[in-house]
Write a structure and sequence with these properties.
By secondary structure, the chain is of the alpha/beta class. 35% of the residues lie in helices and 23% in strands. Helix 2 crosses helix 3. The chain is globular and about 55 Å long.
Length: 266
């Protein structure tokens, strides 16, 4: 997998955030991971985007090597993404966001259009009302005696790698870089009706949904197209975390979309 050195910056309100920047002269693409993930889990996209793109992956607040502030609301996540684009002086950028990162992507596009050139929403809807279902994650211990024990505790999830990407070992054993109660608050904050933001985004926008994921049902995807003409929808045969299980298919899909919607190709 492609690797990069972790870098840091501070947001205007003093939050220290980590990010990975693969560099190069290509079109900048900001990758935003989902809840319980981290930036490096999306670096594999670079292998499929190719040298024409510069991938930058943010560890969103409360994730990876970034700070753990008290605020996990929508404005905070949107503000963090905007702050990174402004810190790097790269706007407008294309954004690829998975789940939690997906809602941030289209909300940033709607509210700060000068910073965003195109949006790929990976398996997140314009209205989210589903039960959170995080009780088992909230009940996990803070440390595990081994990676095997951690994996056994994650037997209830579809794709353990989404969680183990954030696993680290310390003198007390294995632990996650995230704190379950913080991310529960972040997931509470994404529940609601976001149609106004979704339909306000004027940039080229594609939704990539998982056929076996319940997050963006087919009927909801059809409604996204109806309410926002021009929205593209692609279905990949995978669960919610298909960005890991179907990485090549997602990467090629994203590259073809970005190639077609590049400012020079408009």
């Amino acid at each position: 997998m492609t690797t990069a050195t972790t870098q840091y910056f501070r947001t205007p309100d003093g939050i220290r955030l980590a990010y990975l920047d693969l560099g190069g002269a290509g079109r900048p693409v900001l990758a935003l991971h989902g809840a319980y993930g981290r930036g490096r889990s999306l670096l594999g996209l670079a292998d499929h985007l190719g040298p024409g793109y510069r991938l930058i992956a943010l560890d969103q607040r409360g994730h990876g090597l970034s700070d753990h502030p008290d605020d996990h609301g929508r404005e905070a996540y949107i503000g963090d993404a905007a702050a990174l684009v402004e810190h790097l002086g790269l706007g407008p950028v294309a954004i690829v966001g998975h789940s939690l990162g997906g809602i941030t992507a289209y909300q940033l596009a709607a509210r700060r259009p000068e910073l965003v050139s195109a949006v790929v929403v990976v398996d997140f809807p314009a209205e989210y009302r589903a039960p959170l279902g995080d009780d088992q994650l909230l009940a996990l211990p803070t440390h595990f005696p081994s990676m095997r024990a951690m994996l056994d505790a994650l037997a209830f999830v579809d794709e353990p790698r989404h969680f183990t990407e954030s696993a680290v070992e310390d003198p007390e054993g294995w632990r996650f870089l995230w704190r379950a109660e913080e991310l529960y608050a972040a997931k509470v904050a994404v529940r609601g009706d976001w149609w106004d933001d979704f339909t306000a985004a004027q940039q080229p926008l594609m939704v990539v949904r998982g056929e076996r994921s319940a997050v963006v049902p087919r009927r909801h995807a059809e409604e996204m197209v109806r309410r926002r003409p021009g929205t593209e929808v692609v279905t990949i045969d995978g669960h919610h975390d298909f960005y890991l299980t179907h990485q090549a298919e997602l990467g090629v899909t994203v590259r073809e979309f970005l190639d077609r919607t590049a400012p020079s190709a408009a």
